[in-house]
Amino acid sequence: MSKCWKKYLLWFAQEHIEFRIAEIESLLSLFKIDMRYDEKPLNQEPFWLVEFTSETDAQLLASRSVSLRNCIELWGRANSLEHLHSTLKAKRDLFVPHFHSQKSFKIEVETFGKHFSQNEKVSKLETFDYLPLQGKVKLKNPDVCLQYIEYYGNKHLNPPELPYEIFFGKLIASGLRQLIQKLSLKTRKFIGNTTMDPQLSLLMANQAQIQSGDIILDPFVGSGSLLVAAAEFGAYVFGSDIDYLMLHGKTKPSRIKQKKRAEDENVYANMKQYHLESQYLDVLISDFTTIFWKPSMQFDAIITDPPYGIREATERVGTEKSNYVVSEEHLATHVPAKIEYGIPIIYRDLLVFASKHLKVSGKLVCWFPVFREDYNEECLPTHPCLKLIANCEQPLSKVTSRRLLTFEKTRPPSIEELNIEYSTIQDFRDKYFTIREESRKEKRLKNASLKKENWEKYMTNKNAVEVHK
Amino acid sequence: MKLLTHNVLTSKCIRGVTVGYPLLIKATNVKVSEVEFKPDFVAKVLPKIEWDVLANAAESLGHWQNLPKELPNNYENDTDFLKKIHRVLLEVEVIQGELICPESGRKFPITNGIANMLLNEDEV
Ligand SMILES: C[S@@+](CC[C@H](N)C(=O)[O-])C[C@H]1O[C@@H](n2cnc3c(N)ncnc32)[C@H](O)[C@@H]1O
């Protein structure tokens, strides 16, 4: 049976563009949706021209996408208004069924890359008087929402006189942009210094292909931002972290204006704030180098942002002293000593842990810091049971970035694969701190020369003034 | 700490401990808090649960509600049964108390519902 493909316009938010393709591909695979490109998407453009075989597929995709703003059933596309009108007039029969005296409607005008006043927008619509519009106009939640979009390119300076592209169609579904607002860190009860922003957290949950009823873990949970996102999609969440004060909400407040943390700040309070408390399982205070999960425990996904040792310490419990024993009298109140837990070892442990504690086909989604100029795929962590299925870069500065890695567990590990002792990856901080040191030095030198310059200028002026006296 | 969590923890990582399962529970404050009942989820996790361990833990906290000593067959459609299990797994919570390693006797304090599983530097 041949399928009937229909054209749709996917309109994206121009934020975190690097994650767009990976997110959509992940969701297509999660929902087993067939989608084909009508035209190969260009990286920087906010829209894709695609085809689906059913409207429900398009709706399903939008219902989970964080990058997507709108999905529009495409009725016409042209590079001039006249051309658009003639296309639409020729297809009149096709969209007549959408207009009905009982159906309220609205037409939205969007101009991308160039600003128009409300009046200008309304006058653009007047040329559509041939549309068989019958129902009442309703601005809020109309039965039918039509969209007219003019695209002036994405280089916002000096847009052209006329749009490059014009689109017209019917809005089918919207993405999850509102959820980003709802989870905003500005209004979140409990945050830490390294809390992940909601959009990236949701993107991570989508890379993990969270399904309702999944059990997931973040072993470096901090304030639990990744748990919140996963729980939004129906996951039941576990977290663990070495930081006692963090999990009990007793660290110094992370908001500049806040003097003291509230009594009940913790991961659970965040879940409650978003009415997700039923998805909360537990958080444990635990060092990732001592695993308390029973050997047969399998998670549906592991989503995490391990410490890189820039904004927070990378530590584990331990001591360099040999034969050291904590004395009996200090046992109850003893705070364990910590030693350095380097990046290569953290990622080795994380991948070995995932190979053991993920279900087969489950995903490990984690960030990995890199030096941009040194980067190639070979410097990423690997494990024989984990297949890298997505890898997106988020630049952090000119020289550094972090990569969002998605691994899929392909098979259970052998005994040797559970005891991998080496790590081939580099500690990116070796270079990070050297470069920072250099740039600090440069800055000092620059400041010094600037000062000297200013001083010289000042002196010449002063002398000049004195001469004139 | 919920009993679902207790069911999947072991202290095997302590030096010299071979099984470390199940951990003993000593509770001084237990709370039952309402969690939305999702029968599918309960049915899905049940196969991963050690039934005896759950039974003993719940009984020691006084929350077993006369459930059978053995996991019955065909529980998937038995809503009453799933509801009771839901309560035991997700609603009963140890707020203050201790988890105790069955082999070494090492104690892990639970404060405000959060278990502290940190070992000291001389134990790792
Ligand atoms: C980048 S932060 C994660 C922040 C988290 N995503 C959030 O929403 O707040 C890394 C976390 O790892 C924790 N951590 C550092 N070393 C650890 C260790 N050895 N075992 C477990 N957690 C550790 C830190 O306490 C910190 O909370």
Automatic annotation (TrEMBL), chain A:
This is tRNA (guanine(10)-N(2))-methyltransferase TRMT11. One of its GO terms (biological process) is tRNA processing. PANTHER family: RNA METHYLASE-RELATED (PTHR13370), TRNA (GUANINE(10)-N2)-METHYLTRANSFERASE HOMOLOG (PTHR13370:SF3). The lineage of its organism: Eukaryota, Metazoa, Ecdysozoa, Arthropoda, Hexapoda. It comes from Hypothenemus hampei. It is found in: Cytoplasm. Residues 187-316 form the Ribosomal RNA large subunit methyltransferase K/L-like methyltransferase domain. GO terms for molecular function: tRNA (guanine(10)-N2)-methyltransferase activity; tRNA binding. One of its GO terms (cellular component) is tRNA methyltransferase complex. CDD domains: AdoMet_MTases. Catalytic subunit of the TRMT11-TRM112 methyltransferase complex, that specifically mediates the S-adenosyl-L-methionine-dependent N(2)-methylation of guanosine nucleotide at position 10 (m2G10) in tRNAs. This is one of the major tRNA (guanine-N(2))-methyltransferases. Part of the heterodimeric TRMT11-TRM112 methyltransferase complex; this complex forms an active tRNA methyltransferase, where TRMT112 acts as an activator of the catalytic subunit TRMT11.
TrEMBL record, chain B:
CDD domains: Trm112-like. Keywords: Cytoplasm, Nucleus. Its main location: cytoplasm. Pfam families: Trm112p. It is found in: Cytoplasm, Perinuclear region; Nucleus, Nucleoplasm. Gene3D superfamilies: 2.20.25.10. GO terms for cellular component: nucleoplasm; perinuclear region of cytoplasm. It comes from the Eukaryota. Belongs to the TRM112 family. This is Multifunctional methyltransferase subunit TRM112-like protein. The lineage of its organism: Eukaryota, Metazoa, Ecdysozoa, Arthropoda, Hexapoda.
